[in-house]
Amino acid sequence: MINETTTVKLHEMKLKAMVDEFERQLLDSDCLSLSFEERFGMMVDCEYNRRASNRLQRSIKNATFPINSACVEDIDYRADRKLDNGLIQRLASCAFIGDRKNVIILGATGAGKTYLSNAIGMSACRQSFSVKYVRLHEMLSELLIAREEGYYAKLLTQLRKVNLLILDEWLLFELTNDEVKILLDIIEYRSLASSTIFCSQFDITGWHEKIGDQILADSICDRIVHCSYMIKIEGKDSMRKKKSD
After folding, report:
1. Which is nearest to 158 in space by CA: 137, 134, 177, 178?
2. pTM summary value
């Protein structure tokens, strides 16, 4: 009766993992030789670990990674890609997020930019940072709608609060004047407040042409480039093709 009452109370307090461990211990004769402190500690550990796992899963889901399996340990360091293992390991530590710095990942189509950005993002999730992956043109379209419907400032504030924003397909398409102004708002809101990963097919020297307005292009690029780590993925063969072979 006492055990049943205890189980009900644990359920009411939403301590489901502790309930599971408590019930397991009741059926495990080996637990009888353990002290109260040891058994209680095991129950607390179960609850703590399950909650940590649930938080991580929510964080990964909210990040909307296109590659949920991406991880730093599986990055391909073949010589022709010319990746700096040391730099990537430092980025995986996520110290750059605490320092409010950015990462620029450059490479041709299929070079593995998205995978690398998602792998770093996954490391950030594991360290309890909030992460959001989005393609630039999709985000700009959403912000254009938000500006028309009156919740633009709210959406910008939400973007500012994300510890690590991953902007894929960066400047893949030429921007309209309205999109350039919105882009400047995003960069200004996040500058020195949070970190962003920019994934682009184009060298930085070509960004001005994509943005169009030279004055605004200077403002945007200056805020990004001078506080960013740079990764350029070399190699002519597509990683997508390699994985399908």
Report:
1. 134
2. 0.85
